[in-house]
Specification:
Elements lengths: L2 H38 L1 H11 L1 E6 L6 E2 L5 E13 L1 H5 L4 H15 L4 H12 L5 E7 L1 H10 L4 E10 L7 H4 L11 H5 L1 H4 L4 E6 L12 E4 L6 E4 L3 H18 L3 E7 L6 E7 L15 H8 L3 H12 L2 H4 L9 H11 L7 E4 L2 E4 L2 E4 L7 E4 H7 L2 H11 L1 H13 L21 H8 L8 H12 L3 E3 L4 E5 L5 E4 L4 E4 L3 H16 L14 E11 L2 E15 L6 E8 L7 H4 L1 H14 L8
Parallel strand pairs: 2-8
Antiparallel strand pairs: 1-6, 2-3, 3-4, 3-5, 6-7, 8-16, 9-10, 9-21, 11-14, 12-13, 15-18, 16-17, 19-20, 20-21
Length: 597
């Protein structure tokens, strides 16, 4: 064999050896890769395969209904549809042009006009992921329109949407829900765990296009619907209060009007109004704005708009404090009478202004009331007299009564975000005097109504509540909210004396604008300057009126607060007439007989 042939053979042998070596290396690498897939990544890949072959859809539980005390629906759930799309089936064997055409057709049918939203839908449907939720809360008409398109990979699931049949009615009280049908604010949030129920699931095996496999398995877990809640609210009483709140708002152009009506005997809240409110069916749309205010809102940043909406949803009756002014004089007088620090025959002198330590305090009245009994002092709403009453009672005993009346903590009302009263950290002679006539202390409307209700019912502090029962889908009561007496605050004798004093305030004093022919009403007006840096505003007020009706057989404690009225400021002019209008309707509705019958 020639040397040349020998070299060629050796070269070929080397090439073959190298080839086998490369094949061996590749085989070893493939074996390692296969081992990794079969052993190391087995669990992960198995789960991925299962997820690709499994459709797991949520079956929404029906959210419970919110009723008024007489069974009228305040919040319910209406049938709607959720549109799901399987991207694999939607794009299967389609050109990009066909896919874009179908996406545009789908968006047009759904009314999706926002370019950013259309781009998001396009991205989702062209992706290789699992099932895509395109749009929630479709009406039956919209769902039928989607079906008629005949597009592949479409799945429509029946769901529920929260619906408030009365729109902007008791809106801050009821609150609203988010896109996941979870309570966002109000009673919807407070009772969310009862209202929401438990969602079910539908699990089935599908192919890559989302079609159910013949040999696949299917599991169906029924949803458990939420409980209904029966509120203490009376729709008719709420309506009368809302109408009067709107009338006061239109007349006095304030920041807001708050009205709270409660049964003093059991703490059931019959009406809870904040005007202006909002429509919980569209909670992100501000209500009652002028054109200039709308433009200002639209110009706000996202954070500013969020803060604006939060304030709009807020229920200040429970969550905000204010200085009560002269309505708090009822608490001062009641405490002193019950403690025996004063009597009905004691007299108090008013010379308009008076000195406390180095400060000069004055009465709202430009003249002098002179000598007066506690009954006359309440009728006159005299600051010097009530400052002296507080001084006779003393700081320790006065603060104890303030705490006993519920101002030292929370009422415990069944509503989220309750605020407590703001008391001064230091109470000297000056602070004691100003607290005596209702300044230097901030309270919530619900605290004041709860406290005055103890005068109405004979001395018991009763816990206020918005809900009286929980029921199941068959109307069976599963939980009842009973009357809860927190403690005895004053004696029945003191309560009776104070009711007489409150009646005289309406019959002969500053509350005369609430006087009603044939009915005995007891009340007290309040005109409180708003606190500001360095003192009190001379132009910004809380005008209020609180009353018990009828005074001889109390059925109602009613508070009207007008925040920053324009033109007039006195509670006797701004708030008391509104209370009178409400009582004229409500007492007739409650079939309360007049004293002349």
């Amino acid at each position: 064999m020639s040397k040349r042939n020998k070299d060629v053979r050796q070269l070929n042998r080397g090439r073959i050896t190298l080839g086998f070596a490369l094949i061996g290396i590749i085989f070893i690498l493939l074996s390692i890769r296969l081992a990794k897939i079969m052993i190391v990544d087995a669990d992960e890949l198995t789960q991925k395969a299962i997820s690709q072959q499994t459709m797991d859809a949520t079956i929404e539980a029906k959210r419970g209904i919110i009723y008024d005390r007489n069974g009228r629906e305040l919040a319910t759930s209406s049938i709607c549809y959720t549109l799901y799309v399987f991207p694999g089936n939607f794009t299967f064997e389609k050109t990009d042009e066909e896919i874009d055409k179908n996406i545009n057709l789908l968006c047009d049918t759904l009314g999706i006009t926002d370019e950013e939203k259309r781009a998001s839908v396009t991205e989702d449907l062209k992706a290789e992921g699992g099932i895509v939720t395109v749009k929630k809360y479709l009406t039956k008409e919209d769902a039928n329109a989607v079906r008629e398109l005949g597009l592949p990979g479409i799945e429509l699931s029946q769901a529920t949407k929260r619906y408030y049949p009365l729109g902007n009615f008791a809106s801050q009280l009821l609150g609203s829900v988010n896109d996941d049908n979870e309570g966002r604010t109000g009673l919807e949030l407070e009772y969310d765990e009862y209202l929401s129920g438990v969602n079910g699931r539908w699990v089935t095996n599908t192919d890559v296009s989302g079609n159910e496999l013949v040999e696949g398995t299917e599991r169906h877990y029924e949803a458990k619907d939420g409980y209904n809640i029966v509120t203490t609210i009376d729709e008719a009483i709420q309506y009368y209060c809302e109408e009067e709140a709107k009338a006061a708002y239109d007349k006095w152009k304030p920041k807001k009007v708050e009205i709270l009506a409660m049964d003093p005997n059991n703490g059931e809240i019959l009406a809870s109004v904040v005007y202006p409110g909002f429509d919980p069916n569209d909670p992100f749309e501000p209500q009652g704005l002028s054109d200039s205010e709308k433009k200002a809102y639209e110009a706000m940043s996202d954070e500013e708009q969020s803060a604006f909406l939060s304030a709009m949803w807020r229920n200040p009756i429970v969550s905000d404090t204010y200085e009560p002014g002269s309505t708090f004089k009822l608490i001062t007088a009641t405490s002193a009478l019950d403690e025996g620090a004063i009597s009905l025959t004691d007299t108090f002198y008013c010379d308009h202004s008076f000195r406390v330590e180095d400060y000069t305090l004055s009465c709202w009245y430009s003249g002098a009331h002179g000598s007066q009994t506690i009954k006359q002092a309440i009728e006159n709403s005299c600051n010097p007299a009530l400052a002296e009453v507080a001084a006779r009672l003393g700081k320790t005993r006065f603060l104890q009564y303030i705490n006993d009346f519920g101002f030292g903590g929370l009422t415990g009302v069944d509503y989220p975000g309750e605020a407590g009263a703001l008391l001064q950290s230091y109470v000297g002679p000056v602070e004691l005097a100003t607290m005596g006539f209702g300044q230097g202390i901030s309270i919530t409307p619900i605290q004041l109504v709860t406290a005055i209700s103890s005068i109405a019912n004979g001395g018991d502090l009763v816990r206020p509540h918005y809900v009286r029962a929980l029921t199941d889908s068959n109307g069976k009561v599963v939980k009842r909210i009973d009357t809860e007496i927190i403690r005895k605050v004053i004696s029945p004798e003191t309560a009776a004396e104070m009711r007489d004093i409150m009646e005289a305030e309406v019959a002969e004093g500053g509350g005369g604008t609430a006087k009603m022919e044939g009915f005995r009403i007891g009340g007290k007006t309040g005109t409180a300057e708003k606190a500001e840096a360095g003192g009190y505003s001379l132009y910004d007020y809380y005008s209020s009126f609180i009353c018990i009706a009828p005074i001889d057989d109390p059925k109602l404690t009613l508070l009207v607060v007008v925040d920053s009225p324009r033109g007039e400021t006195y509670g006797s002019v701004v708030a008391a007439p509104a209370a009178k209008n409400i009582l004229e309707n409500v007492l007739r509705y409650m079939s309360v007989s007049s004293s002349s019958e």
